[in-house]
Specification:
With 112 residues, the protein is an alpha+beta fold. It is built from two helices and six strands. The longest helix has 12 residues.
């Protein structure tokens, strides 16, 4: 099993959700996060004063999948989240040792 975490632009969230659903991945967790990478921050003008916005709004998507779904999951996220501009985001993949569904006690792939 693998955990796929993607940090994407907020307006791409619905496109990514739909793309994942189309490849059979329906369960996910999303979190509103802030951060920056190469794009750094930017300056904005507010009431005549200029200030620096260091952390940009992003959405973090987390899915736990069977290892054999990893390639299509990554492809779906990449294609749906790409704008071609700086700040499109990143995808991180980690191994998952164990999953337990609390309600039924099912484990591992049966619990996903």
């Amino acid at each position: 099993m693998k955990k796929v975490e993607a940090i994407i632009k907020p307006f791409k969230m619905e496109d990514v959700r739909e793309a994942l659903s189309n490849v059979g991945i329906t369960g996910m967790t999303t979190t509103e996060v802030k951060g920056f990478g190469r794009q750094k921050g930017h300056t904005e003008l507010y009431r005549g004063a200029e200030y620096v916005v260091d952390f940009l709004p992003k959405v973090k998507i987390e899915v736990v999948i069977a290892a054999d779904q990893m390639a299509e999951c990554i492809e779906a996220i990449t294609n749906a989240a790409r704008t071609g501009k700086i700040g499109d985001g990143k995808i991180f993949v980690s191994p998952v040792e164990r999953v337990i569904r609390i309600r039924t006690g099912e484990e591992d792939e049966a619990a996903i």
